[in-house]
Amino acid sequence: MAARLGEFDRIARFLKPLAKGLEGALALADDAGLIRLPGAPSLVATTDAMVEGVHYLPDADPFRLARKLLRVNLSDLAAMGAAPLAYLLTTALPARIADDWLERFAAGLARDQARYGIALLGGDSVSTEGPVVLSVTALGRAEGDRVLRRSGARPGDAIFVTGTLGDGALGLKAARGELAGLAEAHIAALAARYHLPTPRVALGRRLVGLASAAIDVSDGLPGDLGHICRASGVAARVQAASVPLSDAARAAVAHDPALLQTALAGGDDYELLFTLPPDRRAALAELAGDLDLQVTEIGVIGEGEGLAVLDAEGRAVPGLKGWSHF
Amino acid sequence: MAARLGEFDRIARFLKPLAKGLEGALALADDAGLIRLPGAPSLVATTDAMVEGVHYLPDADPFRLARKLLRVNLSDLAAMGAAPLAYLLTTALPARIADDWLERFAAGLARDQARYGIALLGGDSVSTEGPVVLSVTALGRAEGDRVLRRSGARPGDAIFVTGTLGDGALGLKAARGELAGLAEAHIAALAARYHLPTPRVALGRRLVGLASAAIDVSDGLPGDLGHICRASGVAARVQAASVPLSDAARAAVAHDPALLQTALAGGDDYELLFTLPPDRRAALAELAGDLDLQVTEIGVIGEGEGLAVLDAEGRAVPGLKGWSHF
User: Fold this and answer.
1) What DSSP element (H or E) covers A84?
2) What ipTM did this prediction achieve?
3) d(CA A132, CA A53)
4) With contacts defined as CB-CB under 8 Å, which chain B residues touch A55?
């Protein structure tokens, strides 16, 4: 039988180290965590959960899984333009989850805590007879009400996206072995992007006051741009040919053209999708240069409602039509 | 088959109303919730989860369940002396959970939101093939570092508890039908206390600056007083006869003397257990009178380590010995 510590020992061994250095976490020894905010800042809070068998396969590497769990939450903070402060973790674990799993999981959290300057503030560990359920609540800070919203897009604004899109959805197929025939390097690159997205935290913070609306791409480009359109009361037109694809995604589409739809509409990219008054393009270019980050203009906001993803001839891209009416 | 809305509709219908009136919840339409803090307050965050089959029976009333979920989190805020601000909710629900369940659940949250002046700030809804998992992260505010901690108890301090103890653990037995022979009214009273604890939010806030240490009774008196003793580096002596029991709990113990141990050591009471410099007794009495709340002195803090629960003859209460060594 696998080694299994008691709950107190598990917390002391695996979780307490994650709260080290964060004074307000009170060493996880009190009933709640305290965040001291000098001046008059705002606190931004978000929560995202992952369920075994739904969001990841039972044999997923817990080190990588922990990092993804934290990163999808950080991506939400980024989409709000908030600076990461701390997070709370709830784990519902069945008895079969052994210490080594939790240790790897905590190590993954520690790795990304260091990378993103965030620490564990508190949490709850409960048992379950069902699949693993992992939930993080991330807290970030903003200055007053200076945050990014979905609702600020205006007709004439340009639409931008960071990095490349489609890698998340294609990466899921790659991880499932559904891209047979594609070069191994491309399969590995796509799967890696699915397993470990890169939240655009630094850019998100600096888009405050520059972007008119923002969201992170978790549902997919049409779905998430649709959120911006509805919240802002505007329409959007995207040029499919402008949507940035990675070399691996391009190779996948060349291999099977039907995958273009997956690339354009798939989710799980955790890139930032945002709108910008056209006269701020130069400021954005400078910022992107500062951060050494690719940002690509993919379309324009218009009046009315609806979303169109158009090919080079101005026709709706096949398979994306369903997304254009909402 | 039971009625079942799509996820978006479920959120719009059941959860959005819970965010109404809380400006920073942004109508649950953004990636995260924003809390604006005027001046320089601190934010207190805590999280507690409940799993079907572990923390409650599958046929539990979702209205009552929601209120308990919120209340156990509010109890943690109370134990820190924080004022409730907002909360985030994560639900992992299997397909068999129908809309009426979720509607009742949301109604329970709404009821206690109004009662405790807290609102939903955000959350995540995921699916699971296992049991229901419910998780709340509650956020509260405090002034600077003026919070209640477990670590401030000093030799000579008096030990107090709010309300009555033992009802939670006896109530679980009552709800399970294990108290056959006890009067129906007592069974109902105990079960009600188990199903719906009363977090001592108002007292908690006003104990800041008065109590030297505090915790809420969730593990049981010996366990939770043990937490205070370890955190404070002190010992504690409790007079079992001083521990306040409800009429129903007294009746249960009279019916079966072995239940005294359950009453004294059981958990799930969510009363506040706190220590106080002896010269502050009068101030506490005045405060308790203000709040019309029963507080009872049950023992004293001493030097050294360990916890003793003593009967009228000064002997350790049978069955609690195991708790006295830690």
Assistant:
1) strand A83-93
2) 0.86
3) 9
4) 126
